[in-house]
Amino acid sequence: MDVDISIRVDGDTHRLSVDTRTTVLDTLRERLGITSPKKGCDHGQCGACTVLLNGRRVNSCLLLAVAHDGAEIVTAAGLAVDGQMHPMQRSFIEHDAFQCGYCTPGQIVSAVAMLGEAAAGWPSFATPAGEQPATPDSGGMRDDEIRERMSGNLCRCAAYANIVPAIREVAEA
After folding, report:
1. Helices 87-94/104-119 angle, 10° precision
2. How does residue 140 score in pLDDT terms, banded at 50, 70 and 90?
3. Domains of the chain and CATH, by start
4. Which of 62, 132, 148, 157 could potentially form a cystine with 99 if both were Cys, beta carbons 3.0 to 4.6 Å apart?
5. Contacts by 43-47, CB closer than 8 A, 24 or more apart
6. For residue 72, which of 82, 90, 58, 86 has the smallest C-alpha distance?
7. Are the C-beta atoms of residues 164 and 125 closer than 8 Å to each other?
8. pLDDT grade, residue 135 (50/70/90)?
9. What is the three-class DSSP state of 61?
């Protein structure tokens, strides 16, 4: 059964009819031709499909499109403003924080959202008991804090040695 929905992706509104079983990821890739979110595991375990949905990072392979009628979605491609790369995108390039690049869009979207979560004071597992969470504006974030907050995004090439410094640089800026 198809249902009519409207979603706003990277600033553009799309009205389409989707099968009730279609995920947000498949809607983006197959129906709208937006290929920056990748289908990695299709089980919500790798983070290659990470997008911002109404400002929150989500694994788009786990969400049904019909449940998000009217949603605002931002992909890695939508992070750029007026043709200028987002600071996180620039930092990933400057730090050579990718190898094959397959996971990179999801890593970047997740990193941008993670810094927002940290700035809002959301604790993580790496936050020591009784301490305030590390925030980007409290003198930076420890590498273990960045790793923990990014743990839902996997890289098969193991580019983590460059991903963490790329994120830290933006956090400290």
Report:
1. 120
2. low
3. 2-75 (3.10.20.30), 87-172 (1.10.150.120)
4. 157
5. 45/154, 46/103, 46/106, 46/153, 46/154, 47/103, 47/106, 47/107, 47/110, 47/152, 47/153, 47/154
6. 58
7. no
8. low
9. helix
